[in-house]
Specification:
The chain is an alpha/beta fold. It is built from 16 helices and 11 strands. A 6-stranded mixed β-sheet has the order 7-6-8-5-9-11, sandwiched between helices. Strands 2-1-3-10-4 form a 5-stranded mixed β-sheet, sandwiched between helices. The chain is globular. The termini are far apart. Bound molecules: 2-keto-3-deoxygluconate (KDG). The site of 2-keto-3-deoxygluconate (KDG) has 13 residues, from loops.
């Protein structure tokens, strides 16, 4: 009996020592995220990521914009679809810089994502200027078809050479003209008006052709420039004019719809290349799905904007067919002026696709 008790106590002591050593060892070597989940069933805890990956996304527009709503959708899809492996952090209002600066940060790998208009992308690949030609797309459906088709994809893929992974086209939208001086109904009315444009040669040339005095400026500086009257006007989609409260500093809006402005949702190629194939697929799919959602929100909002701007005290000028044609005629040579820079082939390809 004595012998039996001695053996039993030895076994108990040994068991205690072994489990103590195991417990110490595990708490030292496990990553923090796994230590927090020791109560979970084995299956579940093996899915918990060892380390959270942060995806910072910067944009120029504010939190009310359809663009930001699209980013919230992207965040939901990526965080939900990765079981918490990714955390998507959103920065609006040019907090991380303007479109050009943020693209630079993507190239250096110091920022993961941004969503600029195509206009400033021309600094990386001039072919992108094809989408900035005046009066190009007759409606959004045609724009979707060209952008989401082979030509759009070819241009997205071209960004890899500049250290950027182009994921999807979202929508900024048709751009209209505002100013604080007078009602504009014809190119002649634009004479002498100092109009802020995006930093893009096609935009500058188009406004010069329309008779204005265009000046490029980053979006983050625009409101103050209008407030201080260092410029007379600017051009942006109605959603931006309303949601960024431009009506506080601008009186007149003319529905010129002179450019259709796409956004490109993009990621740092460096960050992309370090992802597993499975994570790349998740992000690519989420970028497209969030983009479809963003386009829908943008279009729904756009329909209400004319009335909102009138209610906010702006004079909204709708052009007759004939009046609008005068703006189209004024800019008719812009495409041929940029034929060499953009490339004759790509212009012809886009035009043919539009006509289909
Ligand atoms: O978030 C997008 C903005 O940074 C910018 O692209 C908005 O259309 C724009 C502009 O006029 O600069």
């Amino acid at each position: 009996m004595k012998k039996y008790l001695r053996v039993l106590s030895t076994v108990l002591i040994l068991t205690l020592v072994v489990s103590l050593v195991a417990a110490c060892g595990s708490s030292q070597s496990q990553p923090q995220s796994q230590q927090q989940n020791t109560n979970q069933p084995a299956e579940q805890s093996s899915q918990v990521p060892a380390e959270k990956k942060i995806i910072k996304v910067g944009i120029g527009l504010n939190e009310q914009s359809p663009q930001y709503q699209g980013l919230l959708k992207f965040k939901e899809l990526v965080e939900g679809g990765s079981n918490g492996k990714f955390e998507v952090q959103l920065y609006a209002n040019s907090q991380l810089g303007d479109d050009t600066k943020m693209m630079q940060s993507l190239r250096m790998g110091t920022l993961e994502m941004t969503c600029p208009s195509t206009a400033p992308i021309a600094g990386l690949n001039k072919q992108f200027m094809v989408f900035d030609l005046p009066f190009l797309f007759p409606n959004e459906q045609v724009a979707d078809r060209v952008l989401d088709g082979p030509i759009g994809q070819k241009l997205l893929d071209s960004l890899s050479a500049s250290g950027i992974k182009g994921l999807a086209y979202w929508e900024n939208g048709y751009r209209d003209l505002t100013n604080s001086v007078k009602e504009v109904k014809s190119p002649a009315d634009l004479k002498g008006l100092k109009i802020r444009t995006m930093e893009n040669p096609v935009h500058l040339a188009s406004f010069r052709a329309m008779g204005a005095n265009p000046t490029p400026m980053p979006f983050g500086e625009l409101f103050t420039a209008m407030q201080q009257k260092t410029i007379d006007g600017q051009e942006n989609p109605l959603t931006t004019i309303y949601l960024q409260k431009f009506y506080e500093v601008q009186k007149y809006v003319t529905l010129t719809h002179h450019f259709y402005s796409p956004f490109v949702f993009m990621m740092s190629q460096k960050f992309w290349d370090e992802l597993s194939k499975e994570d790349q697929d998740l992000i690519q799919k989420a970028a497209l799905e969030a983009g479809a959602y963003e386009r829908q929100v943008n279009r729904e909002q756009m329909a209400k904007m004319e009335q909102n701007l009138k209610d906010a005290g702006m004079v909204v000028t709708e052009l007759t067919e004939e009046q609008r044609q005068a703006f189209v005629d004024a800019t008719k040579d812009v495409a041929s002026q940029f034929e060499n820079e953009i490339g004759k082939d790509i212009i012809a390809e886009v035009m043919a696709e539009i006509q289909k």
